Amino acid sequence: MAVENCTTCGGTHIGHNKCPYTLAPCVVCGEQTVMACSDCAIDGKPGVHVCGYRDCRDQHEREQHRVG
Question: Which of 2, 3, 18, 66 has the highest local Cβ count within 10 Å?
């Protein structure tokens, strides 16, 4: 059992019949994404999803991690 070119994340999942990643809105722009901030997830913070746009990542880093 495998899923190739997953419609959610684009990857291949062997042993799964659906994507194991959570699709949620980016906390900055609201676009649906499976990408998330690992630091926020480890800390147990809510709203960990941040899309791949540079501006969204930079804003998240400034607001949540005091970077930049």
Answer: 3
